[in-house]
User: Fold this.
Amino acid sequence: MTVTIYDVAREAKVSMATVSRVLNGTAVVKDDTKQRVLDAIARLGYRPNAVARGLASKKTRTIGVIVPDVSAAFVAEVVRGIEDIAAMYDYHIMLTNSDAQVSREVNLVGTMWEHQVDGLIYMTNRLRKEHVQAFEQAQIPVVLCATEDPERRIPSVNIDNRQAGRDAASYLLSRGCRRIAYVTLIPGTSVLADRRGIGVESCIPDEQLLRIELRDGRYETALPLIKDLLRDNRVDGIVAASDELGLASIHAVQDLGLSVPADVKVIAFDNTRLATMVRPELTVIAQPMYDFGAVSMRLLTKLLNEEPVDDYTVTLSHNVVERGST
Amino acid sequence: MTVTIYDVAREAKVSMATVSRVLNGTAVVKDDTKQRVLDAIARLGYRPNAVARGLASKKTRTIGVIVPDVSAAFVAEVVRGIEDIAAMYDYHIMLTNSDAQVSREVNLVGTMWEHQVDGLIYMTNRLRKEHVQAFEQAQIPVVLCATEDPERRIPSVNIDNRQAGRDAASYLLSRGCRRIAYVTLIPGTSVLADRRGIGVESCIPDEQLLRIELRDGRYETALPLIKDLLRDNRVDGIVAASDELGLASIHAVQDLGLSVPADVKVIAFDNTRLATMVRPELTVIAQPMYDFGAVSMRLLTKLLNEEPVDDYTVTLSHNVVERGST
DNA sequence: CTGTTAGCGCTTTCAT
DNA sequence: ATGAAAGCGCTAACAG
Assistant:
C-alpha cells in the first residue's frame, strides 16, 4: 500500500540507511548506488513520511504561527511574508488565531509544543509574563513579530513605534497643524498603539492634543464616535492608529462638512492596500508588514540553525508616504 | 528531560497502555486508576507528543490548506473560517500559498501528503485534471473551497456563481440600466468570474453589454484601464467581479466627471470589509466568505469521521446587499 | 562508502 | 479493566 523507505532499499538493493543518506545528503554515497536509489524512488513513487522523520530526528520542519486574527489585512500580509520565507527554507507553517486572548495564546504555545514545532512566530497585542513563561516552559525558539517586548527578553522584529509616533506628529506639525487629535485604542489594548501615543505626545503640547480613545478599532464603530468628538473639539490634524481608523477619521471630518486635507489633515499608520484605494488617498506611516513576517521567519531560521545573529532585536525602518489626505 | 507516556505510566503505577486509554478514551478505565493517571500527568506536566501519536495512529489531526494568497482579503476571511472550525474539532491547519501556479499547487498536494495531513482544503482559480490526479494519487480527502469543479468529482463548497451573475445583472436592469459593463478578469483566469460572466450575459442582450477584461484584478492597475474604456463607451451600469474592481470602477466613473449612482450604478461581488469603508458604499452580491471556510472544514470533518453527508456539493446562498453605489 | 541495530513516543492488537 | 509487546517509518550512532 504505502511505500516506505524499506521498499526503496529492497528495490535498490541497498540498506535503508543508504536510502536515508541519499535522501538527506547526510553522508557521501557512491554515485552509482545513489543513482540506483534515485531510480528506485522514482519507480516506486516514494515520498518520505515527514511524521516518521519528525519522530526520529526530533525536527518537524514546521513552525507554529500564532496571530490575533488572520482576517485582518495587516496580519494577513505578515503571514504571507512568513510563509514565503518558510517555504524558501523548506519549512511549513501551522497557523492559529488567538483573538488576542491571553489564555488561548498560552494554550496555543502548549499545543504547538505537542506538535513538536521547531520554532514559533508570535504576534500579540500585549506580551505578558504568562507568555514569556509559556515560551520558557516549552523550550521552543520564539520570534516576536510586530509585538513589543519592553524588556527585550525575546528575539523580535519590529519598528521603532515611539519614533513612528513622533514622525507622524511632527509631520502634521510641519504642515501647520496646531490642534491635533490622536485616534487610537484605549490604552492597554495594544502596546504598539500605546508606544506610538508616547511618541505623539512627546511632540505635541498637551493643550494642542486631543486623545480619542476607542474600545474597538473597526471602521463602523469608530466612525460615529470620532464624529461626535470632532464636532465638539475642532482640530486641524489627525493621527490615526491604523488605516481603518484613518479612513473613519476622514469620513467623520467630511460628514461634519469639512474637507480633507484643506480643513483637516489626516495621517494614519500601516499602509495596507486600503490606503491607496480611497479618496483622498491616505498619507501614512508605512509599516513593512510583509517584511515583519519575512524577517521574523528568516531570523527564526538562523536561530534554528544556530547561525550567528547580529541582533536579536531587529528594528525595521518605517517611513512617511505622503498622499492626498495631508 | 522530556516526559513521555512511559514516565507517566511509572508514576501512576500502570502500563503505558492504560495511560494511552485515559488519554484517548479508547477504552473504559476504572475510575480510581484513571484518577491516578490524571494526577501523574498533572504532576509531571506531561503533554503527549503529537508526532509520535501521528506515526502510531496514522492520524495527525492536521489538515492542509492550500490557497492562492492569504494576503487577499477574500482568502484571509475564508482561512479564518477554516481555522475556527478546525480548532473547534481539534484540528490544526498547515497553510500554504500557491500563487495559483498549477505546478506549485500540485507539488503542495505532495508535500501535504508527506506530512500526513488527514485532509485537504483546496482553493484555486481553475481546477485542472492535474489537480484531480494529484488528489487521487495522494488519497487524501479533499474539499474544494470557493472553487468550481464543473464535473463535480470532488466535494466542494461554493455559491451558484451563474445565478449570482444573473442576480447582479438583473438588479441593474431593474434599476433602469440599459448599457452595462462587466468588469472582470480575462477569461480562463478565474473560473468563478467566468461563470458569473455567463450569468451576466444570459440576462443582458449583447448589444447592451460591454465586457472589460483585465489581466490583473488589482485596483491600481485596473483603474486607468477601466477609465479609458469607459471614456469611449458610455455605460449606465457596471457589474464588477470583485470589491476591488468595483471600487476601481467607481473611481473611474468619478474621474470622468460622472456621478455614482446618479449617472452610473455599480454593483460588485464579494462584500469584503472594503465595501462598507468607501463612499459611496458598494452595493454587492455578498459572498459568505467566512462560511466558505467554515462549511468546508465542517464537511471535511464529516468526510474524515465517515459521518453521513447529504450532499458532497454544498451550495451556499448569496444575496444582494443594496448600498450607495446603486 | 555501506550495513546493522537501536530507538523516537506513541497506539493497538492480543492476552489475561 | 489492565498489561505486554509489536510495530508506525524513519534517523543516527556504531561497525566494518
